[in-house]
Amino acid sequence: QVQLVESGGGLVQAGGSLRLSCAASGSILSIATMGWYRQAPGKERELVAIIISGGSTNYADSVLGRFTISRDNVKNTVYLQMNSLKPEDTAVYYCSVAGRRVFGTTFASWGQGTQVTVSS
Length: 120
Fold this sequence. Notes:
This protein is mainly β. The protein has strands at 2-7, 10-13, 18-26, 28-39, 46-52, 57-59, 67-72, 77-82, 91-101, 106-110, 114-119. The strands form 2 sheets. Strands 2, 4, 5, 6, 9, 10 and 11 form a 7-stranded mixed β-sheet that branches. A 4-stranded antiparallel β-sheet has the order 1-3-8-7, with no helix packed on it.
C-alpha cells in the first residue's frame, strides 16, 4: 500500500498565499508523476499542476504564473506553492502520485483532500 498525507490547506484572503504538501509513504520503488487536482462544489475534478520524474511541469491555464509545483525525491513529497490566490481557487485540493512499488507493480494513489478557501 502507498499512502498519501496532505497538509497545508486553510482559509486565506484574496491575494494571499498557501503552501500544500503531500508526502507519499509505503513500499515505493520509484515515483513517475506527482500532481495536484482540485474540485470545487458542483464542478468536476480538474488538473491544477503536475510534475514528472525529470522535473518537467505542466499547469492549468487558470493558475499559470501564480502556482508552482515542486517535488523532493528524497522525501517522496510534492508541494504546491499558491500565490495571489483568488476566490475562484476555492476547492478541495487532492494530490495524486503514480509510480512503481518495491516488487515492481505500479500504483496510482490519491490523497484524502485538503480544503482551500479564499475569501474576497
